[in-house]
Amino acid sequence: MTSSLTTAQGGVRLKTLNVSVVTPDGPVLDGTYEMVSCRAEGGELGILPGHIPLVAPLTISAVRLKSENNTEYVAVNGGFVEVRPDQVTILAQSAEKPSDIDVDRAQQAKERAEQRLNSKREDDVDFKRAQIALQRAINRIDIANNQ
Amino acid sequence: MASLREIKNRINSTSSTKKITSAMEMVSASKMNKAEQNAKSFVPYMEKIQEVVASIASGNVDADHPMLQSRPIKKTGYVVITSDRGLAGPYNSNILRNLYRTIQERHRSKDEYVVIPLGKVGTEFCKRMELPIAKSIVGLDDQPEFAEIKEITSYAVNLFEDEEVDELYLHYNHYVSAITQEVTETKLLPLTNINEEGKQLSTYEYEPDQEAILNTILPQYAESLIYGALLDGKASEHASRMTAMRSATDNAEDLIDDLTLSYNRARQAAITQEITEIVSGASALE
User: Which residues of B touch A56 (CB under 8 A)?
Assistant: First the structure.
């Protein structure tokens, strides 16, 4: 639910944001928060209620969801964020809450990616792929350890 | 008439087949439920991404991303979703027949098209009919995850981006209900009919700019369309297998009934014959 306050100018000022994180494998998170910050390709992005409609691609990073007295993290792998005054939707090809992250698997993926980075040349397609895999793994491990 | 023992053997083997088919029916039923759920949980993602793509594509006329534009068609790509295993009734044959017919109608030479089959049955069909295969994937999970097919979806979308193919079609079985599945052909690329419903769309600011957004969002959209079709196809596959197994079970039951009848007849005949022999033996002694 969205609560709203009436400002002195008579306009409606929104106090909270509905946030949903959706992936092809189903919704990951749905909730109400006061602020969302995420890292878009153009830089860090902080979204407060009443933001103008916006679409921006995201990097492999953590999305921070702030509510009154705590902050939640979600690991996103690319995708993009769609912002409306009272609604933020994050569409990613995969996303996890810290509790859903398999740290061992991420650790293994990290090691595999590092090995591959050492053995391939820089112009190789596999090199790029390994770089992305490494980013994903590091991102997951960071977020899982943050909790 | 077959001997008693032969009939008995046939009854036994038919009833063990029946056990297998009815077990397979139940397995497929539960897999179908799961697949249906997967397809449903994909819907919010699809709707959202479609909305954003539609509002960007229709919001500004000068969106001239290559994926939104039709170009002269020199080569066509077909993504075909089939299963890995058989025993699914007409599931695979329907779709492959339809594919073959479409290709025969539209193309004269093999240079004009490529096929990207998903699933073993489709791959083997293409090999047998000598259709050109660009890439194929087999051994997909019953509950496929997006990551599993990422490679082939990006491959298909890249074919279009690199102008290897000038249009891309998707052939799959659309899940209507547990007993009905429809062979469906949809045009995946170029994306020309995004906003069919003509809904009221919101306008967005783009960060950093429209072009960059389209570059990330359109391939993702096209890939998710393939994934959506795969989920739909999986649900159809299980539904189709369930129906096929149910009718196999029913047929086995009918067969067992018939065989039991002739078994009883044969037994009766044997008894009658025995009595006749005894009676005639006894009367010969008198």
Answer: 206-208, 213
Residue A24 gets which letter from DSSP? Answer: T
Dihedral pair phi/psi, residue A83, rounded to 5°: -115, 135
What are the chain A neighbours of B147 within 8 Å (beta carbons)?
93-94
- Residue A26, min C-alpha distance to chain B (Å): 4
Among residues A90, A97, A91, A87, the alpha carbon closest in space to that of A1 is found at A87
Question: Looking at the predicted complex, does its ipTM rise above 0.90?
Answer: no
Q: In what order do the strands lie in the sheet with A61-66?
A: A43-47, A35-40, A61-66, A71-76, A95-96
Please calculate the CA angle B266-B271-B273 and round it to the nearest 5 degrees: 95
Q: Which chain A residues touch B207 with a CB distance below 8 Å?
A: 40, 42, 45, 54-56
Please name the residue that has the structure tokens 């999970």: B141
Report the alpha-carbon distance of residue A74 to residue A45 in Å, rounded.
Answer: 15
Q: Which of B17, B21, B47, B15 is nearest to B245 (CA)?
A: B21
Q: What is the pLDDT of residues B200-228, one digit of tens each?
A: 556 777 777 777 777 888 888 888 888 88
Whole-structure pTM value: 0.79
User: Does residue B81 contact residue B172 with C-beta atoms inside 8 Å?
Assistant: yes
State the nearest Cα–Cα gap between B17 and chain A, in angstroms.
Answer: 37
